[in-house]
Write a structure and sequence with these properties.
Layout lengths: L4 H10 L7 E4 L2 H9 L6 E5 L10 E2 L10 E4 L2 H11 L3 E3 L8 E2 L3 E5 L3 E12 L4 E7 L6 H7 L4 E6 L7 H10 L4 H20 L2 E12 L4 E3 L2 E5 L8 H4 L9 H8 L3 E4 L4 E5 L2 H13 L6 E4 L6 H12 L6 E8 L4 H14 L6 E7 L2 H9 L5 E4 L2 H15 L1
Parallel strand pairs: 15-17, 17-18, 18-19
Antiparallel strand pairs: 1-7, 2-4, 2-7, 3-5, 5-6, 8-9, 8-11, 9-10, 11-12, 11-13, 14-16
Helix pairs in contact: 2-3, 5-6, 10-11, 11-12
Amino acid sequence: MNIHEYQAKELLAKFGVPVPAGFAAMSVEEAVEAAKKLPGPLYVVKAQIHAGGRGKGKFKELGPDAKGGVRLAKTFDEVEAAAKDMLGNTLVTVQTGDAGKQVNRLYVTDGVDIAKEFYLAVLVDRASGRVAMVASTEGGMDIEDVAHNSPEKIHTMDIDPATGFMPHHGRAVAKALGLTGDLAKQAQKTAAKLYEAFQGTDASQIEINPLAVTEDDKLMVLDAKVGFDSNAMFRHKDLMELRDETEEDPMELEASKHDLAYIKLDGDIGCMVNGAGLAMATMDIIKLNGMFPANFLDVGGGANKEKVTAAFKIILSDPAVKGILVNIFGGIMRCDIIADGIVAAAKEVNLSVPLVVRLEGTNVEKGKEILENSGLPIVSANDLGDAAQKIVAEVKQAA
């Protein structure tokens, strides 16, 4: 689960992380009132969407010469003009894709005089089973570009969750950023607070870019991206209230309501599979046969008829889907339950695209019998290779 920048900063401030003053705004009037609460004389108006690259982004409704989603303002009139440009319009960035995202919220924050910018992040390192703190002197830039062009400027410190953040970790961060004296002490304290926030909220990522040194030698978080482990949100009801469902893909949102692992992709063959590994293999073999998957969808090992029906509906709600491949290995899940769900969903939504089903495992013969007697044009496959070849052939024939 992701949250907006203003929410991230409010959250980090509770853990003692230094952030500039700022206020969220849902309207032009609120944006101006937010600026009036700040000391000035410089204000920053930021579009709030779940995507990076806002400053370099462009609004679809504005001309190509218009400024992006992060703007400086020196007067209340300039704040008002920026808010009018942004609210209700679609911001396209390198992370949104061509569709972009509509801006429904703004963040008006106090401007600061920047002397130097850094990058600092706390992430889960699944390879080591530890927490990774990543620091770089190249703040304000795309960290992917830094990693590609200047990897020596990225420093990673592993932190064992059993011992937690130690003083030597803080010193390592300060050294990686090239800070000394009081600024080094501020860096150590900020890094410790970020780790505390990371652990305390079950975060999966806290990214600070930039972490800035101001002209008066203060360390300040100017932008923050925070994501949480969705599996831990039952422990954080307060964080769940920060969720902005308008920022999420409607199909992925619907899938989450049924506890389905669904990710929308750009292909044209819908996939319904049980097990993440089998789902990945299914997508690979579709590509091997010359077409592309429209989604990743793992119904899990214990799905019932209702869950399968919901999964089927979600796949078919994607207008790009030209065919569906169901690939199920019935271990915990019985093949006859899957078959019942497929038949029920296909009848309910008036299936109009080719459907190929490969079943294997518990009650497989009963499952195949249900499909065969359904009266629906369902193509049965013997194995995964056969299934991929058949769905590609069916889609091409129907085209």
